[in-house]
Design goal:
Order of helices and strands: HHHH
Shape: rod-shaped
Helix content: over 70%
Radius of gyration: 19 Å
Number of strands: 0
Number of helices: 4
Length: 123
């Protein structure tokens, strides 16, 4: 395959990763909306645990998909052979997958704290 084909394919996969980031933001937003809705049922601990478990499952599946797509993207970027495109290749390999993991963990831990503590307080 030519380099331009590898670049196009990697760009398309990166677009899918960006779509997954959007889905992740929607998951966070929906969870926050539900937790802050002031529903009486959220004051029960087992309901809050179910909300937290559902959030972590959705978040984990999202992260797994992002990391798999990112691996495909990186393999395509490594397939570029033209040395004049080395700067482009360098930027295509950013951010590293560990950045995705760190962001997910930070937000997920914060969402867990919010989902567990916030519904206890009646509006």
């Amino acid at each position: 395959m030519e380099d331009k084909d590898w670049i196009n394919a990697a760009t398309q996969v990166q677009g899918l990763v960006m779509t997954l980031w959007t889905v992740y933001v929607a998951i966070v937003g929906a969870t926050l909306a539900f937790v802050t809705s002031g529903r009486i049922m959220l004051q029960r601990p087992h309901v809050r645990l179910l909300v937290i478990a559902a959030y972590w499952i959705a978040s984990s599946v999202n992260l797994w998909a992002m990391l798999n797509l990112r691996k495909q993207h990186d393999l395509m970027a490594f397939s570029i052979k033209d040395s004049s495109l080395s700067t482009l290749k360098h930027y295509m390999l950013r951010p590293k997958p560990r950045v995705y993991i760190a962001i997910h963990l930070g937000v997920d831990i914060g969402m867990t704290v919010v989902a567990w503590n916030l519904p206890r307080f009646p509006a």
